[in-house]
């Protein structure tokens, strides 16, 4: 697919703004809880509900929205989502849940637009790395602005709402549709192998985010000093950016199958180091975990495409990632008893092993034959 640089930039901007909230949820939802607008018990449920809505919308948009009206869809989604962000700090209870689910649906549509471009390129793995690196930088930048200049839920959600509405400004530079390079026959549902590959993506993200949500409690349980625990999040975020950048440079030069196997083995070693190794290794292990988090994701794209050469499954990657990101912590929370969070790591190891196996099996040349 051939697009002008201005069109590619506009599409990526829209997609990046759609995926800002996962990086801001601890900050924004934490502010709501501190202000008494959201109970601590409801915080996790609200975060899960929005991520699930994002995943469902990113996956379902291709089935219900016209692919030839991207400008109008992007403008409506950005303005409506921004309006919901602006309204969020002024409500509470069930109204807040309804607003954040609505925001998730709009955000998922914006992500769908970016994914639609990425999977239609000749180098989707490289473009996926670029998208991941840019979205992480954008999350870091907005989180920094909110932390420095827009404290509290009102300032934070106002900043997010203004940025989201501003996405409509780039809509005139977007293409109004994409060239049809994806097989779209009578049935748009991916074949069985494509669904298995998507299950692998879902489980891989379930592993990642389940461990990420509980990494600080796990560090404290392992005896890591509190001053070092506070370094985990910013250090991991920096390493995520480096991981996405490295994947962008190496995509197409490293074999996807061997890379995912190697990354999976290293991740398993990191899990063991976090749970059973000396506390002095924990920070280094968590930093390496952050690097591999985004480094591995672009290498999954070629395997999903190999599982479904029509690229119908590839269009659903964003939805699978978001659903996995929401279900992982939700399922892992049931394993935490009496403050012991170590079982979360073993849950993550199981998701990692099955997820990688599903991707490798579905995307193998033998399976294709």
Automatic annotation (TrEMBL):
UniProt entry keywords in alphabetical sequence: Membrane, Transmembrane, Transmembrane helix
Superkingdom of source: Bacteria
InterPro entries: MFS_trans_sf
TM segment ranges: 43-65, 72-91, 97-119, 131-151, 157-174, 195-215, 227-251, 258-276, 282-306, 313-332, 344-363
Stated name of the protein: MFS transporter
